[in-house]
Amino acid sequence: MDQSSQQCLLQIPAKRVILPKFRTRPHQNPLSDQVFDYPLSPDYVDWHTLFPNISLPFWLDLGCGYGGLLETLGPRFQNINIIGMEIRSQVVDFVENRIVKLRRGDIPYESLNINPIPRECQTIQQEVNIKEKIDDKTAENEEKDQSDNEEEDVKDVSAVFYTCSELLLTNPLQNVDLNDLSFARQPPPVIPITKDSLTGYNFTNIGILRTNSMKYTVNYFHKDQIERMFILFPDPHWKMGHIRRRVVSPSLLDEYAYCLKPGARVYTITDVPVVHHWMVWCFTRHRLFERVPEEELVNDVCYSMIFSSTADASRAEKKSIGKFPAVFTLLQIPKQ
């Protein structure tokens, strides 16, 4: 090989090595016909495959995603079995592999998601922006015919207030408390977990199931079995035709109330104001649920953790988007 050929070979750049990345769909239709292995009743559920001690109380994280909340609450509540339900198969595989590594101790303390530190969100006047959008939409609707208001594809955020005819019947502001949008921008402080406090703990009280929680929750849990439930950053499902896909609806609350223990708390949080008001409306109009005042949540560790323990919470913090929490409790069911 002559000298000119060698120079040409030296000038050829090396092929770039691209490492495979974990990718999955951000959303999945919960109403589609999918094949899930689910028990006929809670009597057929073998919890021993997930937890060594099934006599402990159960907490449920609906749509747990990548398991951030499970990993955060597990060390703080070691006497509680915390189960997450997720519909996406690839996400469930990811969480299962991480739980295996956590139990083997392969993940160092510095890489654990047990002490999430929330960033200070910028003060954004979302309540003012939403009020302006609602006023503009009201003026626009007065000039249009009724047929123009029956479009199915709703892309404007404020338009959702008008497609949910049950939620806002006449005046779009009658059920919307604009002060509630700035309800809690900063969560209460929490004492961090040190490395020494994790001695002897191996995350055996957290687990995940792949299932459709909107269809099969009652197939897994007995009546009054769940003591706390978490619904964090659910899929907003903007379109009018997709509202029935939301994980919170009046009909689904009946099933949740059946599985929840009287006095149990349901924690909700979202970065979408419309979804926040939808969930608040669904819970407050249900006769078995009552909203917990902010004063009673100051010392609630779970309330502090929902702000920053999940991947969606970190995304909202990076974009300086406000977070809108709401906590509800299940009232005592009167005996007939």
What topology does this entry show?
Layout: H1 3-11, E1 58-62, H2 68-76, E2 81-86, H3 89-104, H4 126-143, H5 160-163, E3 206-210, H6 213-216, E4 226-232, H7 250-259, E5 260-270, H8 273-285, E6 289-291, H9 301-305, H10 311-318, E7 324-330
Parallel strand pairs: 1-2, 1-4, 2-3, 4-5
Antiparallel strand pairs: 5-7, 6-7
**Amount of helix:** 25-40%
- Shape type: globular
Please tally the β strands and state the result.
Answer: 7
Q: Largest sheet at a glance?
A: 7 strands, mixed
The CATH superfamily of one domain is identified as Vaccinia Virus protein VP39
The rounded distance between the terminal residues' Cα atoms is 96 Å
Attribute tags:
336 residues; Rossmann fold; seven-stranded mixed sheet; 10 helices; methyltransferase; transferase
Walk me through the structure:
About 15% of the residues have low confidence. The chain contains ten helices and seven strands. Strand 4, helix 7 and strand 5 form a beta-alpha-beta unit. It has a domain of about 220 residues: Rossmann fold, CATH 3.40.50.150. Helix content is about 30%, strand content about 15%. It has a seven-stranded mixed β-sheet with strand order 3-2-1-4-5-7-6, with helices on both faces.
